[in-house]
Amino acid sequence: MSEASVCLNHPNTSATHRCAVCRKPLCDTCAILDHGAAYCSQQCRADAIRTSAMVNQALDAKRRTSRRACIRSLVVLIILAALAAAAYWYYKQNTETVNRQFEQIQKEAQQQLQQGKHAIEEHTVNRKSNYKKQIESIAND
């Protein structure tokens, strides 16, 4: 404690402790010592115990939540690994069928792409029109 600090209850006595809750300066006579901490009153001691219990409950809840999240992530990872293994096994057992279906999907996608391209070309201005050439020649003159 600093030299200037005096007990609030005994102004002529130097403070040797501070209350762990409210930080009031205390002398040895006034300090209520409990588990290495000093308190100015039973109320401050009870508040410290209650607060400590609430903090411990919050930390336990956080640990449980964290543990559940870890377990949930592990379960999801196991399921994804099992699905990947099943897909690989299916592909190895049915390689020709899968390749054939893949090629058919590619052909259908190409056809749809060509149809879309054709539809766009039908609805746009002919890029070979003379109008653009005329405007460009006027601008260059």
Please outline what is shown here.
The protein contains three helices and four strands; from the N terminus they run ββββααα.
Question: How would you characterize the overall build of this protein?
Answer:
The protein is mainly alpha-helical and 141 residues long. The protein folds into two domains: 66 residues; 47 residues. It contains three helices and four strands. It has a two-stranded antiparallel ribbon. β3 and β4 form a beta hairpin. The longest helix has 52 residues. The termini are far apart. The mean pLDDT is 89.
List keywords for this structure.
two-stranded antiparallel sheet, mainly alpha, elongated, 2 domains, two-stranded antiparallel ribbon, about 140 residues, 3 helices
- The quaternary structure here is single chain
Q: Cα distance, first to last residue? A: 95 Å
Q: Tally of extended strands?
A: 4
- SSE string, helices as H and strands as E: EEEEHHH
User: Approximately what portion of the residues adopt beta-strand conformation?
Assistant: 5-15%
